[in-house]
Design a protein that fits this description.
The complex is a heterodimer of chains A (100) and B (484).
Chain A (H helix, E strand, L loop, with lengths): L3 H21 L3 H26 L3 H31 L13
Helix pairs in contact in A: 1-2, 2-3
Chain B lengths: L15 H16 L3 H4 L2 H19 L4 E3 L4 E3 L1 H27 L5 H19 L3 H19 L6 H32 L4 H6 L1 H7 L1 H18 L9 H7 L2 H26 L5 H21 L5 H22 L1 H30 L14 H4 L1 H15 L5 H15 L3 H26 L15 H19 L2 H9 L6
Antiparallel strand pairs in B: 1-2
Classes of the chains: A mainly alpha (100), B mainly alpha (484).
Chain lengths: 100, 484
């Protein structure tokens, strides 16, 4: 049987890749994908814990999180489309009207 | 004692205000299809919020739990629900005129405010980490849209995107934290976590503290604590001004409601948190204040000022205990009043074309709009914490609670910070009253009733509660957690 630590390490690695992706990437779509990766890493940890503890809670929470991720995707992509219409670019470096 | 956690009773009376707001929002969304009905949207919003405030007031004093222990109705939550409702109500009044002038007066805006308020209420009332997370998302997703509501403006687009990326990033941290706490505690229910805290910390300390750290990062982004504040100035400056007013008050109060609930109610046993919040408080108030010193844009200045106010409120998390919680509630009520008042005036000034609310545009305002300038001055004095405004008592009670618990050095730093902040608040007053009007004369501004009401209500509240803080203090002292 695969120990729970293996799943948790995988989740942590995915989470790390996601957060580095958000911080490093200059492309809005890739930043957005990285955030989704982070959410799914959290889902992975929830399911792993849930399985190890023999509880159903974690499995149910994952469904709630998936719904939230879908809602976030709808709004986020709509914002990116609105921005692209005005700017014709999804490069974050060009969004510097206000200084960071 | 009833076992609330395992009981599956569904008691809808716990969430009457939320249901009211959701119905109102749905009604507004239905009205979108017809132009005549769409014009009713602000009215529907106002009526809904008044009803929700009524239901919230009726809940005052109730101590109940329901929905398998996930929702708790106590005076702490009810007080925060009141703050959110009042903040949305005032924002709605401020927004109406501004949206018309900018040509973005869509009914959807009012529905978004209401839905976002529902999310905040869920956050304040939940005693379960997952329900809190759901509330946070219900609050945040409408806020992203509201930030980008002026979709032809590049600044508004930029603000929305930055808010969205940062908000989603923070949510992911929060969720990961919840996952780890679930792994340690085998539950996400705060009541159970609080009951077994020492056992969990002893046996699964690694998971628990990893989870707590991730949750602190997540909420740090939401309440704009330094070092997680970099998005705040841009988002606040780019968003439509009434939306900025809302951002600076309501989501921040909701974030603190959730943080107080988690860390003072659920995890009071975690010792390491005191030092962590100590550092966070000092960093947040100092960095916010120092960066605010050199801002020439009023909106941006108020953004940094809101960061430093968040720093003061984090003191309550350092101290813990019921004194600090009631002081934090007092502070948030006071801050809601005078900050929304200041933003109402900024919004009013921005209703002129081409106004970007830079500081030089305010010069000589006292000559053309004396009453408005006096009100703006009052709000600035309140933000800086001068007596006899309520801003003074807000700081006083908070610092007194901290001194009583023995955090003297923290209070010294906070008081020094308040002195620093006087400089940039008084710059606004100086521009209004003592600078000669700029070469390009400003068009005179006609006051509209909706904004006038907000300015009068907030000014009377700021001064009145400054002279008679006793009543509000009693209310906030009553508003503590119910340990059901």
């Amino acid at each position: 049987m695969v120990p729970i630590s293996a799943y948790l390490i995988l989740a942590a690695v995915l989470f790390g890749i996601g957060s580095v992706g958000v911080l490093v990437s200059r492309n809005m779509i890739i930043m957005f994908m990285s955030v989704e990766l982070m959410l799914n890493a959290a889902n992975m940890a929830l399911v792993a814990f849930s399985r190890a503890l023999n509880l159903m809670d974690g499995h149910v929470i994952v469904f709630l999180v998936l719904t939230i991720a879908a809602a976030e995707a709808a709004v986020g992509l709509a914002l990116i489309v609105a921005l692209f219409r005005n700017r014709e670019s999804v490069d974050i470096d060009r969004f510097n009207l206000m200084k960071w | 004692m009833v076992d609330y956690v395992s009981s599956l009773s569904i008691d809808f009376s716990l969430i009457y205000p939320e249901i009211t707001l959701l119905l109102g929002a749905s009604l507004i969304l239905l009205s979108v299809f017809s132009r005549q009905l769409g014009a009713l949207a602000p009215g529907i919003g106002v009526v809904t919020l008044v009803l929700a405030l009524g239901f919230t007031a009726a809940q005052w004093g109730d101590q109940k739990a329901g929905f398998a222990g996930m929702v708790t109705c106590d005076d702490f939550g009810t007080m925060f629900k009141g703050i959110f409702t009042v903040a949305s109500f005032l924002t709605l009044l401020i927004a109406h005129r501004y949206m018309k002038v900018r040509g973005i007066d869509k009914p959807e805006f009012y529905a978004l405010i209401l839905v976002s308020t529902v999310g905040m209420m869920v956050m304040a009332n939940s005693t379960d980490l997952i329900v809190m997370f759901l509330g946070l998302e219900i609050m945040s997703i409408p806020l992203y849209v509201m930030a980008g509501f002026n979709r032809r403006s590049l600044e508004s687009n930029e603000s929305a995107i930055k808010y969205f990326i940062m908000g989603a990033f923070a949510s992911a941290f929060l969720l990961m934290g919840i996952a780890f706490i679930f792994g340690a505690a085998e539950t996400t229910n705060l009541r159970r976590i609080a009951a077994d805290f020492s056992y969990i910390a002893g046996h699964f300390g690694v998971y628990l503290y990893a989870g707590i750290a991730l949750i602190v990062v997540g909420f740090g982004f939401k309440v704009a604590a330094v070092p997680f504040h970099s998005w705040v100035p841009d988002v606040y400056q780019g968003a439509p001004t009434p939306v900025t007013a809302f951002f600076s008050v309501a989501p921040k109060a909701a974030g603190f409601a959730a943080m107080l609930r988690i860390f003072v109610y659920g995890m009071a046993g975690a010792d390491a948190l005191t030092e962590l919040f100590w550092i966070l408080a000092v960093l947040t108030m100092s960095v916010g204040n120092i960066l605010a010193l050199r801002q020439d844009n009023v909106k941006r200045m108020l953004a940094y000022s809101s960061i430093s106010h968040a720093g003061y409120i984090i003191i309550a998390l350092v101290v813990g205990g019921s004194d600090a919680v009631s002081a934090a509630i007092f502070y948030l009520v006071a801050y809601t009043l005078f900050n929304l008042g200041a933003f109402a005036i900024v919004t009013h000034l921005e209703c002129r074309s081409g106004c970007k609310s830079d500081l030089p545009e305010l010069s000589g305002l006292a000559g053309t709009n004396p009453y408005l300038s006096v009100a703006l001055g009052l709000f600035m004095f309140a933000l800086a914490g001068f007596p006899p405004t309520v801003g003074f008592f807000a700081k006083f009670y908070l610092f007194a609670a901290a001194v009583k618990a023995g955090f003297v050095s923290l209070v010294v730093i906070a008081v020094l910070n308040s002195f620093v902040s006087v400089y940039y608040y008084l710059r606004v007053v100086k521009a209004c009253f003592f600078d000669s009007p700029s070469a390009k004369p400003l068009t005179p501004i006609r006051m509209v009733p909706s904004i006038l009401i907000v300015v009068i209500v907030t000014a009377v509240g700021t001064l009145g509660l400054g002279f008679f803080p006793q009543r509000l203090l009693e209310l906030s002292q009553a508003a503590i957690f119910a340990f059901l």
